[in-house]
Amino acid sequence: MTDARPPPGQIVIAGGGIGGLAAALALARQNIPSEVLERRPAFGEDGAGIQIGPNGTRILTALGVAPMLEASVTTPDAVHIRDAMSGRDLARFPLGPWIAERHGAPYWTLHRRDLHKALLDTARREPLIRIRTDVVVTALREERDESVTAVAADGEASRGRALIAADGAWSALRTDPFGGGAPRYTGKCAVRTVLPVSAVPEPLRRPEVNLWIGPDVHVVHYPVSGGEAVALVAIFDDGRVAGDWNSPCDRGWVGARRQRFAPLLKDLVGRPDTWRRWSLLALETSPQFSVGRMALLGDAAHPVLPFLAQGGVMALEDAVVVARALAADPQDPARALEAYARERTPRVRRVAEASRANGRIYHMEGVMAAGRNMALRHIPPERFMSRYDWLYGWALPA
Ligand SMILES: Cc1cc2nc3c(=O)[nH]c(=O)nc-3n(C[C@H](O)[C@H](O)[C@H](O)COP(=O)(O)OP(=O)(O)OC[C@H]3O[C@@H](n4cnc5c(N)ncnc54)[C@H](O)[C@@H]3O)c2cc1C
Q1: Buried residues in 37-70 as b, exposed as e (16+ CB within 10 A)
Q2: Is 312 in the pocket of ligand 1 (CB under 6 A)?
Q3: Which residues are catalytic?
């Protein structure tokens, strides 16, 4: 155990990803000190894109992170949906100024690395936040003196008034004491890459979120790095049981699966030299989000399928809610964390269900797909987007 005395009232955060760093920043905005323990020896995010809806960009602005992202974000004009097999245009739903005006915050696409770096740089400037790398938290322990200890692999530990476990989708901490199960492979994987914009077929360079849907597959691509590059992700059914997370993926494997695509999509998917593969996970048993003075946050609490592009945004929402709860009830962190859990559970369940539903809709075949395509072509675009007001309009009550 470390001898260094923690600052009074410190909160320990296990995991320095999007959720852990956002939680540290949100706590600092409430004048609460924290220590972030990150497993990796050095920070560095892998190449992939991320979409942040208005419910997330509003939080990044409130946390003081947004100004660092000005040069790296794109505000796409629309979500452009096409049939992956015929190439037919199905719909173009408005983002850009329309969504920014409707929800008072923009819709962004950016490189994950840029988002993580902006969170980290903002956190490093904050005197109330301490960050330690190369610390693998292996267990959590509530002490008799009402503190909580994070036990690390090498015996070192950090102690605080409460603890937030934000150790991601493969969380080692969600089982004990939160009672969550191990993640289960869903039979779907995401293969991802980032291409310079010059390597993308000319008709696909518009500032849009492009979604191609088809039986058992969908492909998404959008601008990142301020429009200099394009993030490309394809979701495939894949029977291989995988314990792998972010592993290299053979170009030939992706190539074999693009044969049935429409020519423009086939061309795009054939261009990258390298891909990386993510297994998409679900939980058999959902954990409790809080137990005593300890709480789960982000993917550790609720890994969601990426079909609504909201997993990272849910971690941002968790962060501001947990910080506000701890600030509102300084005498009783356990009660504060219980309030956080109560507030977040229905919201993330709804998002998880909406993500699953999108997956089913994207991957339809036969008459179901024909009906879906007809509906997409005929629904007024603004009416369609306003069905997501519950999602993008979320804001922390004043
Ligand atoms: C294909 C795909 C596309 C996605 N697209 C989007 C999108 O467009 N928009 C969106 O909002 N979300 C998206 N997501 C989801 C998003 O990436 C995650 O929800 C988000 O990264 C969760 O953040 P987190 O902080 O909870 O976990 P992570 O980002 O995984 O961070 C966990 C951190 O904890 C550290 N850690 C792990 N174990 C320990 C330990 N024992 N001790 C200490 N540290 C530890 C890890 O090293 C890591 O730094 C996507 C996900 C996938 C797979």
Answers
A1: bbbeeebebebbbbbbbbbbbbbbebbebbebbe
A2: yes
A3: 222
Per-residue pLDDT of the chain (398 residues; tens, 9 = 90+): 444 567 888 999 999 999 999 999 999 999 999 999 999 999 876 669 999 999 999 999 999 999 999 999 999 999 999 999 999 999 999 999 999 999 999 999 999 999 999 999 999 999 999 999 999 999 999 999 989 999 998 886 799 999 999 999 999 999 999 999 888 889 899 999 999 999 999 999 999 999 999 999 999 999 999 999 999 999 998 877 555 567 788 888 898 888 899 999 999 999 999 999 988 988 988 999 999 999 999 999 999 999 999 999 999 999 999 999 999 999 999 999 999 999 999 999 999 999 999 999 999 999 999 999 999 999 999 999 999 999 999 988 76
Locate the ligand 1 atom nearest the alpha carbon of residue 19 and give its number: 25
Report the amino acid identity of residue 15: G
Residues 295 and 163 sit within 8 Å (Cβ to Cβ): yes
**Rounded to the nearest whole angstrom, what is the distance from the C-alpha of residue 97 to the centroid of ligand 1?**
29
Cβ–ligand 1 contact at 209 (below 6 Å): no
Q: How many CB atoms lie within 10 A of CB 288?
A: 17
CA–centroid distance, 98 to ligand 1, in Å, is: 29
Helix 18-29 vs helix 112-124: crossing angle, to nearest 10: 30
Could you give the angle at the alpha carbon of 251 between the alpha carbons of 261 and 110, nearest 5°?
80
Q: Supply the residue whose CA is at minimum distance from atom 18 of ligand 1.
A: 312
Taking CA atoms, 9 is separated from 129, 145, 171, 208, 311, in Å, by 12, 13, 25, 45, 29
List the structure tokens of 26: 């949100």
For residue 265, what are the CA distances in angstroms to 219, 299, 332? 9, 31, 55
Q: What domains appear along the chain, each with residue ranges and CATH number?
A: 11-182+284-392 (3.50.50.60)
SS3 of 34, please?
strand
User: 359 CB under 6 A from ligand 1?
Assistant: no
Ligand 1 atom, smallest distance to 138 CA = 41
Q: Which residue has the tokens 């990142």?
A: 224
